[in-house]
Amino acid sequence: MTKNQTLVQQVVSGLLFLAVLAMLGWLSTRHKLELDWTAGNRNTLTEASRKQLEAMPDPVKFLVFLYPRSEQRQAIESDFEKFRRVKPDIAVEFVDPSAQPQKVREYNISRAGEVVVEYQGRRENLSATTEQAVTTALQRLAYSGDRWVVFLEGHGERGIEDNDQQGYAQFAGLLRDKGLKVRALNLAQDRTIPDNTSALVIAGPTRQLLEGEARIVAEYVAKGGNLLWLADPENAPGMAPVAQALGIAWQNGTAILLESAALGLPPFVYITAHYPPNPVTKDFPENALFPLVRTLTYKTDAGYTVQPLLTTSDQAWLETGPLEGELQMDQAKGDVQGPLTIGVTLTRDAKVKVDDPGSESGAAKEETRPQRVAAIGDSDFLSNAYLGQLGNSLLGLNLAQWLASRDAQLNIDVPKAPDRDLVMPVWGLYSIYVGFAFLLPALLLGFGVARWAVRRRR
Q1: Do 265 and 360 share a structural domain?
Q2: 0.85 exceeded by pTM
C-alpha cells in the first residue's frame, strides 16, 4: 500500500469517526436514556404517581414561596423534575416572599419553603415536596365537589374517631388524605341519610338496627345509594330487608382455610391468593389479610350485576360450630364445603325520582343513577390493628374510591419513602467515636513506629 493510499484511508476513517460522533450527538437530542441506581429508585416516580398524572389532563402549577438564595431551591427543583418527566405541562414558579407580600397574603403562606399546587381552579398548600406529599395532594385536587363517606354509628360499629385496636381512625385518615370527606351518622339523631353521601359504610355492628333505622337504610339503597356493608361472623348482620333487596344472604359460621394453616397462621385467617375479575381489584398488586370471615351467597336475578370480589378455594369450608379443638369438615352438622364467597360487588342503573325545578307543577322526574354496593364478610381488616397488614389499606382505599365513582384513583397509593436515617444505640455511637478518635490513630502510629524500627535495624 502506497503512502497516498494510506493517507486516503486515514482521512476516510477520520471522516467516518466524525460522522459517527455527529450521528450520536444528533440521536442524543432526540432520544433520552435515564437510569436510576439509587436505593429504592428514589429519583424515579412510582407507578402509582405516574398513573395519577396520566389521569389529570389539564396543566398543573406549583408556586414555591422561597427566598432567591435559599439552599432548598435545588432540592425542590429536583423533586418537581421527576413529575415533569411524566407530565411536561407542569409549571413551577418560584416566588420571593419579601418581594411579593401580596401573594403571601393571597395564598395564606405561613413560612418560607411552602408550596401551593393549583389544578382546575382548585389549590392546596404543601409543606413538603416529597413524592408522597405531592401525589396525595394531586389526588385530592383531581375531583371537585364534596364527596362524603358516611359511617353509620350507634350500634357498636367501628368508630372513625376510635384510636384503639378495633377503631377506624387510621382508615378515616387515609380517606381524608385522598380528598374524601368523612363523617359519622347516628340515625337515632339525624333520621335521614344526607343526599351528598357518596357511600354509606356499615362496619360490623354488634347490635341490631331498630326497625325504623333498617327501613331508612333500605330506602337509601332503593333510591340508588352506594353502600359498603361489612359483617363479622360473631355478630348477626341484621337488616334483612336490605339483604333481600340486594339478593344476598349472609351465612352463619366462620370460614376455615387450610391454606392459612400451611403458612403457620390460624385456620380461620383468610389471605387472598388471587382475585376474581372485579373492577375493585383489577391489577391489584398485593394480597390482603382478613382475621375472621363470614361467607355469603347471592342471587343473579335481583336486578343487580353481581361480581365476586373475594373467594376461597374448594379446600375451605364454612364451620358452623364453635372454633374449638380439632376442626374438621362435617356436612352432617351443617358445615358447607368450599369454594366460598366472602365478598361481592353489585352494580345497577337505579331509576329514582328527583324534583324537577323546571316543572311548573313541581312534579318529579325519573332519573337513572349508577349504583354500586360492596358486601364483605369481615370488618377487622380495616381496623387500626390490621390496616397496615399486606395490602389491606390499599384495598380499603380502592373500595371507597370505587364506591365514590373515582375509578381513575384505583390502585394509587404512594408508599412512604424508605428511611435513610441510621439509628444506632448509644454504645454504638461511642464505639465509633473511640475507634476513630483513639484506636485508629494509635494503630497508624504503631505501624509507623514499627516500620521505622525495621528500617533502622537494616
Answers
A1: yes
A2: no
